[in-house]
Amino acid sequence: MDQEFWLARWQANQIGFHEGVPNALLVAHFAALGVPADGRVFVPLCGKSNDMLWLRAQGMRVVGAELSRLAVEQFFAELGLDPVVSPAGRLARFEAEHVTIFAGDIFDLDRAALGAVDAIYDRAALVALPEPMRARYAAHLVELTQAAPQLLITFEYDQTHHKGPPFSVEASEVAAHYDAGYRLDHAETRDVQGGLKGVCPAQESVWLMKRR
Question: Is the pTM of this model over 0.90?
């Protein structure tokens, strides 16, 4: 799986992974991270998620990173906003009304461009990547944010029934990626209603992670 896969999904409007309402697990658990008022929350591989609007409504300043420039343009257009667009190295920075999104490859985003963040919300990044890329992504995220507190959502299911994405990421893998830098709190697991894309039973887990 490469960048062209995701770019083609956005071009074809095949965005079944895009939720039309704020994620219920985010709403239930975000406060536990203890993000200060007016904090900056980083949302990797954000697409045009409504979760960013929910975070902004809580008083947060939201910073996203998204491969598809089309998704970023649609996000602001659907809000009726005309963002300021500026270069950020190999990426483009879109900014309007307390939301900043970097369009391009997240691995090209560096700490200088991103700036300090108070927390990370990862619902659709780690689980969107195939196993060979997940370790690289996790290490980059930790370095990029200096191990900012994180709310991570993962799926677990039998991948013989569905190849992904989203991919199944077990607790042992979460620990392998993040235990060195974070205290891991497995906050909740719940069944995915209707199964994963109606194909197979699945569970969704919430991890609250704070720097050691």
Answer: yes
